[in-house]
Amino acid sequence: MSEEMMKQGVLVRGFGGFYVAVDESGTEYILRCKKKFRRMHISPLVGDELLFTPGEGEEHGWVEEILPRKSECLRPPVANVSLLVVVICPSPEPDLLLVDRLLVRARLQGMKTAIVVNKCDLDASLVEEIRRQYAGADCQVLAASALQAHGLNDLRALLQGESCCCLTGQSGVGKSTLLNALLGLELETGEISEKIQRGKNTTRHAQMLIRDGIRVLDTAGFSLLELDAKMEPDKLRECYPEFQEHEGCCRFTPCMHDREPGCSVTAAVAAGEIDPGRVERYRLLLAEVRETWKQRYN
Known about the structure:
Blueprint: E1 7-15, E2 18-22, E3 28-33, H1 35-39, E4 49-53, E5 61-66, E6 83-88, H2 96-108, E7 112-117, H3 125-133, E8 140-143, H4 152-159, E9 165-168, H5 175-183, E10 207-211, E11 214-218, H6 233-236, H7 264-270, H8 276-294
Parallel strand pairs: 3-5, 6-7, 6-9, 7-8, 9-11
Antiparallel strand pairs: 1-2, 1-4, 2-3, 4-5, 10-11
Helix pairs in contact: 2-8
């Protein structure tokens, strides 16, 4: 098919080997992916900008080209995210090490980040605790309650104007419930297991929702995430904005801020300037990155 008949759009969801793209007018097209992408070891991701040829009648169209990605997430597997919004809540209990992993990956990809504390009506103190821990992390913290429609205007303002936002986090934190309340949708939602205090994963695949000037990805919840196996250990500290003013102030250079004598970050923790939990989790991740780096050629 000629170039004149090709269209440009964004991939909004996939199912059973088919993909759905939306063009500028909002028209949806069902597409298949050409074999050349398999040979190139490239798979389309929700959020990808595409060139495609529409199908005729009942026939599907074809993905012709996947345009260069501005960012790429491993988990959830989505592309071109400009703002990553990590959703947590009082129950299930927040996994802040997972939150930090997500923030590190986002910063390496050049994404902006935010944390939304949903179900804040259950425990108002959690919002203040998260704001205290992430005070220097260049990461906005919002309070929300989808059921009580609290904080939705703040969240809407955060999402508007971004080229593509992604809500991510553990199962059961209420990502789909938030989007229902925010955008007037009816996405399937789940309950929390009372026995194990875990969320039931009702969102199984990522999908892009476009409404009222907002492009947002609803994604499946998860509890495990590894950092990039190719990350050099000394790159990790660059993903912590609260460390930046201490660079060059330690006794040793470079300093990994891992309990070295004369470490300025350790002194800042003792002085109450940086949250100790945030630094302790950084050191856990640093040990993981060092071990992975050591094993990279095995």
